[in-house]
Specification:
312 residues; Alpha-Beta Plaits; 14 strands; binds adenosine-5'-triphosphate; binds magnesium ion
């Protein structure tokens, strides 16, 4: 699949010092949902703002649909919609005017039908004549999205789209992002919420201290880095883990009723058959057994903390 955004050797050093981005190379594929995951200050907003032409890079190059963001700024920018992390709204503007005005900014002719569709999609149509200052924070965020969508961008950047919004709006937002993707829009979102990346993304990039430490298909990432757990529900509780089981990584839970074995999903030999044989030899019987894949959250925490330890 071709890259719709191509980032090479991108660095950013703010005037106040410190490298916000360290040689980032990243290709975004046309039509994908890409989630950029990272802790506060990792460089997510800086990266997005450079691609959108709001922050100037220190070095490196970015192509948007083949257009250089510096030399060919207007062409690059016209393909992009951005929902910024910080909400910026005109207090006395109406919802409809906000969305319509944004379209004009990108040199598009007015299209009330398109603006209506966008407002309806975001459940804002009933509020179209309300002025911004009378809306709640979540509603304002929807208006920001309406503004970003009003000029029919091919690439949509969502910087923390669901920060501070309620569960229902979050679900709506996810649904909307999927519909946009189905219409062929490429979506790049940043988030702290790992479940959001897990739920939404086709690919995930993890950024920490200005470095892109990993880019991977979500499914492959979960498989590659995922630890799995095998839980055995014991017939009789154990007071302690028998010493004969010392070679397996085991934990005893639920007052000794559950034996939990953690293993690497990618290892060819998990050690499970040998463990089960050993349990039989020891006369430890179980009623049931099940396995669980660890969540992206656990993977992320271990990645970021490994890195932090390595840097110390
Ligand atoms: N305008 C600026 N001037 C100086 N330093 C800045 C500026 N904007 C960001 N930084 C610094 O650059 C680094 C990356 O910030 P950035 O906003 O890109 O992080 P982020 O990943 O978006 O964080 P968050 O999750 O909190 O939104 C931080 O160390 C931040 O303090
Ligand atoms: Mg940010």
């Amino acid at each position: 699949m071709r890259a719709i955004v191509s980032i090479a050797g991108l660095t950013k050093r703010y005037a106040t010092g410190g490298d916000a981005l360290k040689r980032i190379d990243l290709d975004i594929r046309e039509g994908e949902i890409f989630a950029l995951l990272g802790p506060n200050g990792a460089g997510k907003t800086t990266l997005i703002n450079i691609v959108c032409g709001i922050v100037t890079p220190t070095s490196g190059r970015v192509l948007v649909d083949g257009h250089d963001i510096v030399r060919d700024y207007r062409a690059a920018r016209s393909r992009i919609g951005l929902v910024p992390q910080e909400l910026v709204t005109e207090a006395f503007e109406t919802v409809r005017a906000a969305a319509s005005f944004s379209r004009g900014l990108f040199g598009h002719a007015p299209d009330p039908r398109h603006v209506e569709k966008v407002l309806r999609d975001l459940s804002l149509w009933d509020r179209r004549n309300d002025i911004m200052m009378t809306l709640s924070g979540g509603m304002k965020r929807r208006v920001m999205i309406a503004k970003a969508l009003s000029h029919e961008p091919r690439i949509l950047f969502l910087d923390e789209p669901t920060a501070g919004v309620d569960v229902e709006l979050r679900r709506d937002m996810w649904g909307l992002v999927r519909r946009l993707r189905d219409q062929g829009v490429t979506i790049i979102l940043t988030t702290h919420y790992i479940d959001e990346a897990e739920e939404m993304a086709d690919r995930i990039g993890v950024i920490n201290h200005g470095e892109l430490i990993l880019v991977e298909d979500k499914a492959r990432l979960m498989k590659k880095l995922g630890k799995r757990q095998l839980t055995l529900n014991l017939q009789e509780p154990l007071a302690a883990i028998p010493t004969e089981l010392g070679e397996w990584s085991l934990a005893l839970n639920a007052n000794g009723h559950e034996l939990e074995f953690t293993f690497d999903a990618v290892e060819e030999h998990t050690g499970i058959p040998a463990l089960l044989r050993k349990l039989e030899q020891l006369g430890i019987n179980y009623r049931d057994l099940n396995t669980k894949q660890s969540s992206l959250e656990e993977i992320f925490v271990s990645l970021v903390s490994d890195r932090a330890t390595a840097l110390q």
